[in-house]
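Sequence in, structure out. Go.
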Amino acid sequence: MQKNSTLIKAVNKNVRSSARKIALVLDYIRGKKADVALRDLEFARKRIAKDVSKTVKSAIANAENNFQFDIDNLFVKEAYVGKSLVMKRFRPRAKGRASGIKKPFSRITIVLAEKKKEVKNGPKN
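Output:
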């Protein structure tokens, strides 16, 4: 990636939660400034917010170290989740039967972008 593309990406693979639960948290931070998103995730009442916060911090670190972006201008452009592998387990039931249990994993992707500085022109006479 080059500096002119202004997109930074971080992917957290194999997060032990379902995609539906993570999507609720991602909807909450999409479009916000990076520091505001981290603050909101810190006070979110979902367990998965900690993993999402870790991914946002990773994206910020990528922007700062790899591409020399200014952290104050970063915002969450995209935040989405996809399904990953599913662990299949079973639970013994009555009369010798068994019922399946699915333990889903997900993949969180956070894309940050840099806000462009707006240049205000003076009045033209």
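Check: The first helix runs from residue 19 to 29. The beta strands are 7-15, 74-92, 98-114.
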